[in-house]
Amino acid sequence: MNVQKLVQDQKTSYLNGSTRSLKARKGVLIQLKKLISTHEKELCDAINADFGKPYIESYITEIYTVLDEIDYHLKNLSSWMKPVSVGGSIVTFPSKNIIYKQPKGTVLIIGAWNYPVHLSLMPLVGAISAGNTAILKPSELAPNTSSKLKELFDNYFKPEILAVAEGGVEVSSELLSQPFDHIFFTGSTRVGRIVMKAAAENLVPVTLELGGKSPAIVHKDANLEVAANRIWWGKTINAGQTCVAPDYVLIHASLKDAFISASKNVLSSFYQNDYLVDKNYTRIVNNSHFDRLHNLLQKSIVILGGISNKNKRFIEPTLVDASWSDDIMKDEIFGPLLPLLTYENEKEIPHLLNKKTSPLALYMFTESKKFQDFIIQNVPFGGGCVNDTISHLGNHNLPFGGVGYSGMGSYHGKYSFDTFSREQGILKKPSWPDPDVRYPPYNETKLNWFKRLFTK
């Protein structure tokens, strides 16, 4: 693939206006919807081949979510595109002042392996609705899904409008060296630094969706049965390989034993016929990730679970008795291991959490509005839920994004449209009146008039 030519062809196509009209944008969105709907099973099968995700889980988290996003954009796009009139000022009177939403141009979207359809196509929906041309780089760690996306995009779209670029680090590096008008990256903080550094060479703006250790706080007044159900639901989706999965539980010390007991009941209920990869559970994506997780498991005090099988890349959902200094608490786990830590006094929670980098998500289980406000005001995080996990991603009206080490910028719904658009402010002024006071030569008389007219 000639990356440089592909980027140039897309830039030429954009400058020719091929993607700017409402009709053109809706046409591409409808075509993308057709691609996904028609080839739903092929996409789910490719995901399953990459890491054994059950069909129902793939459909709900990867197919339905994108189709729902497309429908939302199709419904609202015409209103989002309309210029917005804003007020003027006494200095600019008389005038009309308008903000236009313009496409950024040609954009690069780098997807992630853990949700290889969702995390590639969700930002792409925003790029399309904003009127851009786009190159999508799926993760090479999900090769079957990457290959299927490439095949389908080649059949459904002209490459000068939308294209898929496959490959490893070499292709990513070549793409990052090109003068895109925006780069959207989903992945690790380590790679996020590389992307941002490369983008800076061409002064390309970036959106970074990264990760971090997302806590689940269980306060002393929590409904423990609900908390256990929803925490383990969020942790076991995709075998914990989710950027907003609960990374650890910080629970009031008085509830620790009860949470352990509730966790046993929850996992027995979730997996009544044992853990069956492809049927009700997902395997770890590759041997490297398995070895990393297995190493953490070996260093941990297991409360429940702990079974693993390298041949099947299987790791059982595992509750770990942890302390803040343990290896498992140093970096994002990205797997089905759940450390359990305790606190005595709620006032210590911000001190404990703020020692770490700000996470992408935070979850708290409590009935106390005061406690909710205390955590929200004193602990920085991207977004989250009260008495739930992960579900905030399903609301088009909420921005999804990180803060600091967990990312910059946001998307979903209109936030995606805004991310891939630029605001262009225009002042429109009539030819009359045209007072002399604004023009040289300037003198004391004109200054005094200016002060009398414009100074309070």
Q: Strands, helices and their partners?
A:
Elements: H1 3-15, H2 22-38, H3 40-51, H4 55-81, E1 84-86, E2 96-103, E3 106-110, H5 118-129, E4 133-137, H6 143-156, E5 162-164, H7 169-176, E6 182-186, H8 189-201, E7 206-209, E8 215-218, H9 224-236, E9 248-252, H10 256-270, H11 287-298, E10 301-304, E11 308-309, E12 314-315, E13 318-321, E14 337-343, H12 349-353, E15 361-365, H13 369-378, E16 383-386, E17 407-408, H14 414-419, E18 421-428, H15 444-454
Parallel strand pairs: 3-4, 3-6, 4-5, 6-7, 8-9, 8-15, 9-14, 13-14, 15-16
Antiparallel strand pairs: 1-2, 2-18, 7-17, 10-13, 11-12
Task: Note the main attributes of this structure.
15 helices, 456 residues, 18 strands, alpha/beta, single chain, 41% helix, seven-stranded mixed sheet, six-stranded mixed sheet
What would a concise description of this structure say?
The protein is of the alpha/beta class. It is built from 15 helices and 18 strands.
